[in-house]
Structure formats: structure tokens, C-alpha cells
Amino acid sequence: MSNNATIQPSAAPSSSDEGGKLKDRHIAMIALGGVVGAGLFIGSSAAIAAAGPAILLTYIATGLLVVIVMRMLGEMLLARPGIGTFVDCIRVAHGNGAGFVSGWLYWMFWVVTIGTEAIGGAILLQEWLPLPIWILAPALIVAVNLINLAAVDLFGECEFWLSLIKVAALVAFCAVSLLSLIHFIGPHADIAANLTSGGGPLPHGFGAVLAAVPTVLFSMMGSESATVAAAESENAQSNLARVTRTIGARITLFYLLSAALILCLVPWTSIHPGYSPFVTVMHSIGIPGATLIMQIVVFSAILSCLNSSIYITSRTLRGLAEQGDAPNSFAVLSSRQVPQRAVTFSSLIGLVVAFCSILSPGLIFAFLLGSTGAVILLIYGLLVSSHRIFRKADPTNPAFTLPFGSALNIGTITGVGIVIATMFAEPTQRSTILASLLSVAAFSALYVIRRPKSIASKRTT
């Protein structure tokens, strides 16, 4: 609904209604590992190569955007206990149409991620297991699908250990790098020379800093997934509060500190897109087996992302089914409180995406990547505007603690708009914006087409 005078409780049950299955330690590690993935371990190389040492400014600006959006999401979830997920927040604030479109866009985003992560994992696995990608990729999806089908707590346990590997590796990297920086181990790095080589701290101008924002932003995706898991935990409210309030510390530790250490220890010109800068640093320090270590860590990150992607898509699809925006069968829970049909369907579509990558990488798969590449920005914009509506409707609610009132909402939406404008201005990213807008138009048209039928169906029951 667009009217912000009153906000009525959501009628549909939320995922938190099914009882706590995830433990506090699961949520804590999922939250820590949610922002750590292949996008950091490998994808950061493209960002550093594009902007040089000034990439730290990109990480600061992008991290601030993610922190603010996650804090706003947390306030809405805490102000309305049991409301559900962020899709439900958008639905309550902006109406069923916005909930339908944002829910399906978000589901599509993570379904495409299932396919891409499966392909990435299969390519990496080929170095240890010489089998065709078209066998390895489906095998990974099936294996992770079985984990999600079994029980929620099994998903949490697997995600706990996979996240622990990622976080431990990153903490170890930072510790070793700091020891090298103070000349305790390895060769003595010339910090000033590393930061000023190749054109100085801002080698490609400020435009490169802005142009790298989408790359960095997409590497940070997954922060909001921890809120979905937190809603299905034993102590949902306290976990939601902790997850959304500690996101800033996690991003600072994982992204800013690791990027700063990389830039201090090796010349940024030695960082090549597609090759992990972490491996480059470890080789420079003299860590034996650096390549193998990073392959194991990246494979763990891929499995973690694949595991989370199937979990998120199934819960999003279940939420859509509960609202009548997807077939009712996807809302059915098994005896172990798992939406098995939603899990299976999402995994199958992810498998189709993986085969599209193999059979038509330059056409169908490229379009799928582009059509979901910027949808998270639309969702962020809707979340920020939803927060403004929630806060205006209930200004005395103690859950709303962010400063500056509506000015912060307007400023954040402006920031999202700048990112979109930057992507549109960049020739290599313009197709992503256009394809994503096409996805928005397609789901909007689908809502308009199907809604009269849905209303008529409800009147006859």
C-alpha cells in the first residue's frame, strides 16, 4: 500500500512461526560468513585493478551504504516482530505489487547465483577431479540440495563450518600480513612505493572509484540473507538485532582491512583481474602452498554461497506462496518444517541456469546475469523508502534509533541512484541496467495480468 498513515500487521504467517531450528552459534557464523565469498577472495582483484589504491574509498562508500540499509532493515523487523522478511516489509509499506515484484526479483537473483556458483565450483573441482563440468555442476547442486531438504538445523551446521573456514582463513591472512608489515616475517615491503606506484593513489581518476562501486557492492551481497536465517532461529529477535547492528564491524574487518593490507604489501599493479590478490600477497611473503590453500578456501566459499542460495530462494518462494503470489504447494512444510517443494523447484531452476552457462554462455546465460545484475539496487531503494514509511507511521517506536530522520533515507536513496547512474554511464555495465529494468517490467506485467485472476479466485472461496 502506498498510503503511510497506518501500517497493518501482515496476515500471512512468517518463517519465524515454524519454530526455532537454527542455533545462536549458527546465526553468528552465518552473519560473519555472509559477507565473505569468492567476490572478496577473487573478485576484489578486478576492483583493485580498476581503481588502484583509491579502491579503499569505494569500499568505504559501498560499505556505508550496505550498513545503513541493513540497519534500516533491522529496525523495521524489530519494530514489527514476526512480520517476516524484508520482502514483507516492502509489501506492507508499498503494497502487494511491490512485494510481488521485489520477491520474484530477489528469488531470480539467487536462482541465477545457484547456477553461477555451481559452475564456478565445478571449474575449481576439475583440478582435483577430472570430470566434465556438466557432471560436476549438477552433482554440486544435488548434494547441497539434499542438505537443504533434510532439515533446517543441518543447513545451519553445514553453513557454520563452511563459514568458519572462510572467516578463519581471512583472520589468518590478516594476522600473517600484519606480521609481515611490521617486518616480523617475510621480506620488508616498501609501503610508500606500493601505494604510489603506477600513477599514485588515484591512478585512473575519481570516476574509476565510482565505476568500481557495483563490483564491490555485488561482492558484499549476502548480508541480508543472515536476517532470513535469524528469523528461523531459536532467539529470533535478539539474533535479528545482533545481525543488523554488527554488519559494519564485519565489513570493516573483512573488506577494508584485507584490502589495505594487500595494497600495502604488494604493488597494486601486480594485481590481475581473475587472480586472487590474497595468493599474490602470500607468495610475496613466502607462504608455502598458498595457491592450494586459497583454492580450498574459495571452494569452501562457493559451497557456502551455494548452500545459502538454495536456502534463501526456498524461503523467498515459500513467502511468495503464503501471500498468494506463487503456487500454494510451495508453502507446504515437511514434517521437519522444511519447504521441500520450494527447495526442489529452486534447485531445479538453478540447475537449468547452470546448463545455460554451458550450452549458451554468450547469449542466454549472459542475459540471465544481466537481468539480475542490478535488481538488488532496486530492492535496496525499496527497503530505504519502506523504512521511511514505517518510521513516519510509528515515530515513537524505540526500535527506530538511526539519526537524521528522513534526511538519511533521502540521502541513501540518492546514493543508490548515483550507483545506478554510474552503471548506466559505464558502457560495459549499461546492458546490465537495461536487462535488469526489463526484468522489473516483466514481473510488473505478470503481476498486472495475474492479479485479477487471484482476486476472483479469493472471492469464490
Key features of this structure:
single chain, about 450 residues, mainly alpha, about 70% helix, disordered N terminus
Describe this structure in words.
There is one protein chain. With 461 residues, the protein is mainly alpha-helical. The chain has 21 helices and no strands. The N terminus and C terminus are likely disordered.
Count up the helices: 21
- Name the shape in a single word: globular
Distance between the termini: 24 Å
Percent of residues in β-strands: under 5%
Largest sheet: none
List the SSEs and their pairings.
Elements: H1 24-33, H2 38-41, H3 44-51, H4 55-79, H5 86-94, H6 96-125, H7 133-150, H8 152-181, H9 191-196, H10 206-211, H11 213-219, H12 225-230, H13 236-245, H14 247-265, H15 277-285, H16 290-322, H17 340-359, H18 364-372, H19 375-393, H20 406-425, H21 427-460
Helix pairs in contact: 1-8, 4-13, 4-14, 4-19, 5-6, 5-19, 6-7, 6-16, 6-17, 6-18, 6-19, 6-21, 7-8, 7-16, 7-17, 8-14, 8-16, 16-17, 17-18, 18-21, 19-20, 20-21
Task: Summarize it.
It is built from 21 helices and no strands.
